[in-house]
């Protein structure tokens, strides 16, 4: 996502704020990996992946809406970066778990190399 670009161009964010913004997106991997793995194991993966795509679209769409209404803040971008990062964690884990369903055992290694 281009959250740092939005922060710098629209909010005149400092380098520290851009660093925190990047850390928010990365922190989602640290915080959400284990809970996301538990969720992915218990639900159907394809609908979950579709839901992740829709959720990611809604979260990202809140940024231009917030900007148009004049309510876009750096804290809003921090929250959106963490949410999108969290959704990406769930999607990536589901994607890796769903791959064996899509491919035969012979093609699984090739699929794993091209999926990442």
Structural account:
The protein has five helices and no strands. The mean pLDDT is 91. The protein is mainly alpha-helical.
Blueprint of the fold:
Layout: H1 3-11, H2 15-42, H3 45-68, H4 74-102, H5 108-115
Helix pairs in contact: 1-2, 2-4, 3-4, 4-5
Task: Give a brief description.
With 116 residues, this protein is mainly alpha-helical.
Brief descriptors of the model:
single chain; 116 residues; mainly alpha; 5 helices; 84% helix
DSSP helix fraction: over 70%
Cα-atom radius of gyration? 17 Å
Which outline best applies? elongated
What percent strand? under 5%
Uncertain spans: none
Largest sheet: none
Using DSSP, what is the number of strands? 0
In whole angstroms, the N-to-C terminal distance is 17 Å
Overall average residue pLDDT: 91
The count of helical stretches stands at: 5
User: What sequence of helices (H) and strands (E) makes up the elements?
Assistant: HHHHH
Q: Which structural class matches the secondary elements?
A: mainly alpha
